[in-house]
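Hi P.,

Sorry for the delay on this. The queue was packed all week, but I finally got your sequence through. Input first:
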Amino acid sequence: MITLSKLSKRFDRQLVVNDVNIKINEGEIVGLLGPNGAGKTTTLRMIAGVLPPSKGKVEIDGTDITLDGSIKKRIGFLPENNPLYDEMTVEEYLAFWADMKGIAKSDQQDAIDFVVDRCGISEVYYRPISELSKGYRQRVGFSQAILTKPDILIFDEPTEGLDPNQRQDIANLIRDLGKKRTVIISSHVLAELAKIASRMIIIHKGAVVADETPENLRKLGSSSQIVELEVKGTGVLSTLKKIDGVVDVSETRKNYFVVEVNKKQDIREDLYDLSVKNKWKLLTLVARERAIEDVFGQLTSA
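Then the structure:
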């Protein structure tokens, strides 16, 4: 178990992380969310043991990581922007990190073979890193992070700058690596992270403002739900606004309306009856969950 107790970090007079308390169980995949400057990266660096807290502590299975440096061997960390050495080949880069991580010479090749296979980089193993695509560069970064077969993985913005296909590729890799490990990920791609993480923690101004499963997170931050309909007719917008329980109506494109309605009411039957009464042509009528992005915006707008 990873335990953050009253964790705080101050740079000069600026308090970046403020009294954060989090417990992460073994085997969880946890998404850490927040706007720019919220304290995500600083928190991850403290968990990884590369940045000491100003106050509070990070414990792994009850051991303070600042008091026992050996416990850091259980952590694999991929920092933001994935720092690589472009002049090296992938082979040289992994050999360098095997030395840096203190892997015995007799065990290094087995460790390297393991990460090359798990991260799918055999095709580029002898190539210079400078020649690799962004997707392969990220895979090389992941391979460095898991060289010692750590049981805790920390990834800071691992899909930043990748195209949709590359992001999906890396998401699948994270799911695979997370089957037998605890994984903590920060990302700005909220919908993508919701598909990977079993739990999502939102940090705003250095403090935790939400800690829920993706499903429960969608229910936070508002007392309304969304109904979308595509309908052809006259006076639709003005009529929809007069329905009891409707909070807001917008026409996002021609004949397509998004209706925000009080959660306690299901107005889909009313909308159907209204369409029949006014001789509208109702083409689509569906209630949808609030997007993670909507909830995120509400919780971090203050």
